[in-house]
Amino acid sequence: AQSVTQPDIHITVSEGASLELRCNYSYGATPYLFWYVQSPGQGLQLLLKYFSGDTLVQGIKGFEAEFKRSQSSFNLRKPSVHWSDAAEYFCAVGWYSSASKIIFGSGTRLSIRP
Amino acid sequence: DTGVSQDPRHKITKRGQNVTFRCDPISEHNRLYWYRQTLGQGPEFLTYFQNEAQLEKSRLLSDRFSAERPKGSFSTLEIQRTEQGDSAMYLCASSLTYGRGQGTQSSTDTQYFGPGTRLTVL
Fold first, then answer.
1. Partner-chain contact A100 B45, CB within 8 Å
2. What residues in B contact A1, CB-CB < 8 Å?
3. Which chain A residue is nearest to residue B41, measuring alpha carbons?
């Protein structure tokens, strides 16, 4: 069955520190991958996406993510977080072999310590 | 603003009432998706349209739920006889794709989300 796992429910980092949010997916078919961010009470904003090509993708707001097929992972990173990065982050995965819907992880809530 | 818009942003209703939500996608996007998001969870797929055709419905979409996209532009999601378990954020997304049906994906089939409609059933 297709599934997406974000193992960290809540992460707190200090402002200026580096960040890595984990995302793993199951199912062997070729995936395409997204990271979205959601502020309280708001919709989802696309941070970055991977469809093919270079496995390290750059997104908005200084975020990047790396697709590692061997580990079925698509972790999100940022070298130095800002207080405005506090939000909920969702990894989403689609598979070329299935319908066009994408499956979301349960999210990681990011808090920033001043 | 040329993003996805949803109306209303908030809806409070009593159990048993019917509610209808509207979604206006990004202009010329041919695909439109509905998701439901409950507290502490990621969005769950409900259904999607390509132009006016409803191509897939999730098992989450009970017979009390109906969605339409009559002219291939805006879409409505209606919930009849609401239950307290229907309380959630209902999200709409749209995308532009050159393929049709299952297993078809183009590099531009990226879903852009609206702000959502928060439904509270009392």
1. no
2. none
3. A106
Instruction: Label residue B99 by pLDDT band (50, 70, 90).
Output: low
Using CA atoms, how far apart are residues A30 and A23, in angstroms rounded to an integer?
A: 16
Give the bridge partners for B90, in sequence order: B36, B117
d(CA A109, CA A48): 18
Q: Which two tokens mark B48?
A: 């999607």
* B74, containing H or E segment: none
Cα B47-B49-B55 angle, rounded to 5 deg: 75
And the tokens for A42? 């708001």
Give the Cα separation of A110 and A19 in Å (integer): 9
C-alpha distance across the termini of chain A, in Å: 41
Give which of B69, B61, B68, B55 is closest to B99, Cα–Cα: B55
* Closest-CA residue of chain A to B110: A49
Is the confidence at residue B95, as pLDDT, over 50? Answer: yes
Please provide the average confidence, as pLDDT, over all residues in chain B.
89
Task: Tell me the pLDDT tens digit for each residue of A30-44.
Answer: 788 999 999 987 889
The pLDDT tens digits of the residues spanning B23-43 come to 999 998 999 999 999 988 999
Q: Which residue has the tokens 């078919």?
A: A29
Cα separation, A90 vs A23, in Å, equals 9
Distance CA B64, CA B78 (A): 8
